[in-house]
Structures are given as structure tokens and as C-alpha cells.
Amino acid sequence: MLHFQKKQNMRNNIKKNIPFYVMFIPVLIYFVIFRYVPLLLSLIISLEKYQPAKGIFSSKWVGIEYYKQFINSVFFWRLIRNTLGINFLQLTVGFVAPIILALLLNEVGRMRYKKLVQTVTYLPNFISSVVVVGMVVTFLSPSTGLVNNILAHLGMERINFLTEPSYFWGIYTVMTIWQTAGYSAIIYLASLTGISSELYEAARIDGAGRWAQLFNITLPGLTPTIVLLFLMKIGRVLDVGYETIVLMYNPSIYSTADVIGTYVYRRGILNGEYSFASAVGFFQSVIGLMLVLFANKIAKKTSETSLW
């Protein structure tokens, strides 16, 4: 009887939500055609010695040969270290920066100044990565760059930042924060508007100051959004914006700038090793999926918020 009732409730829910399922069909078709089919074809290519003239289904089958080549490569650990190192900075400094910006904007009383600051911090997101990298190169130029001019004025030696491996992670992190923090802060600002003003009024009546309200109302109210975005960020922990790095790096800083994405670009696009590049890309996707599953499981146990 209970089983029959569950089935009946499921049928009723489906009938009730038919318009939503119909609206979801185009999204499903998009993901199947442009996401899952290419992923499946990429997996097949990674397991064979792909030759464009023969096609995907006629090329020689080699199994996991290219996966072994990547793992046994002399560059493997360097790529993993650089990718994880840059992403660690993105998960700490880069992830926290939009939250701090949103909290600061939330405290601005005058709406005119708040909108001005929000617009100024939001605009860099629309600037092309090519332009942003060009700005970085100009500012850090060893001969005419603003930063080096300031160092010279202070009596310090000029530094060629873009040829020194030790500076790359910091430069990339600061550049990314400047470009994306304002855009990412919008999500947190939207979440802040959902926190009831009555909670703040009750806290003020009880004598709570700004800091007490921040730690007892604002941050707990933001926690679900922070957890969800962090879980989504974890899934891309091996995926660094290689397009920007390709524009910035050169052989002299490969030791800290070369990541999985740039390595795939050189081997797959420039050298035409499509099967090897597909193997590395699929390896990256599997590790990302495992990290998301692991992080989601921890989030379920430690909080009420999770992706599923």
C-alpha cells in the first residue's frame, strides 16, 4: 500500500511539473550534444592513436598508453605542483576576496557610493584577457613600467618580473582577483539581500555591534552560498585559465607557469598530438569529478548545504 502511494505521489508530481520538464528539454539537449557527446568522443580518442585521415572509429587502438605516457612524463609532477599551487591561491586569496568585497559594499550606507564602487570593481570582468595581460606587461616592464619606476625612485633595482619564476604565481593571482572579484561579489551581494532585516534590528536592540552582527548573522546567512560556490570551485581545481597563462608565460618561467592546460595546448594543438591531449584532458576531468564527490560528502557531514 505504501509503495503504491509513493508511485502515485510521483506520478502526481510529474503531471504537476510537466511545464518545467518541457522547459528543461532544450537545456538537456544542449548538454548532451555539446558536453557529453564530445566527452565520450574525447575518451575514445584518448584510447587510440588518432589520425584525422582515418577518423575516430578507424584509428589504431592503443588502450591506456597515453595515460601512462603522461603519468610517467618528466613534467608530470611539475605540472601537478604548478596547477595545484596556483589553484590553492585561487581557493584561498582569490575565493575570499569577493566575499570581503561584498561584505564591505554591504556596509556602505550611501547608495550612490555603493553603486559607484560596485560598477568600478565589476567592469574589469568585461575586459578581454588579452588586454588585461597587455596591461600587466606594461605595468611590469623593466624599463618603462610603473612598478619598476616606483622601485627605481625608491633607490631599488629594477626587476624583470615576467622572466622571474618566483613572481609568476603572485602576479597571476593578483591579476585574476582584480579582473573577477567584482563580478563574483554580485552573487554574495544577492545572498546578503535575502537575509532578513529583522535579525539585524533584533541584534541592535540586544546591543550587538557591527562585528557581532557580522559573525552571528551575516556570515551564517552567507554560508550556504559560500559552500556551494566552494564545492563548484573544487571541481575545477586542476583547471587553470591556461589561455591567460599562454599569453603571459615564456620558457624562462616554465618551472612555475607551466600547468596542465598549457601543456595540453603545446602537445595537442601545436604538436598535433590529439590522443595525448585528450588523455590528459580526460584525466583532469576525472580527478575534478572525484574531488567534487569527496568535497560534497564532507559538506554533507559538516553542514546542511551540499550540491546534492
From TrEMBL:
Keywords: Cell membrane, Membrane, Transmembrane, Transmembrane helix, Transport. GO terms for biological process: transmembrane transport. Pfam families: BPD_transp_1 (PF00528). CDD domains: TM_PBP2 (cd06261). GO terms for cellular component: plasma membrane. It is found in: Cell membrane. The chain crosses the membrane at residues 20-45, 84-105, 126-147, 167-190, 211-232, 274-295. It comes from the Bacteria. It is a multi-pass membrane protein. Gene3D superfamilies: MetI-like. Signal peptide: none annotated. Residues 80-295 form the ABC transmembrane type-1 domain. Belongs to the binding-protein-dependent transport system permease family. This is Sugar ABC transporter permease. It comes from Eisenbergiella massiliensis. The lineage of its organism: Bacteria, Bacillati, Bacillota, Clostridia, Lachnospirales.
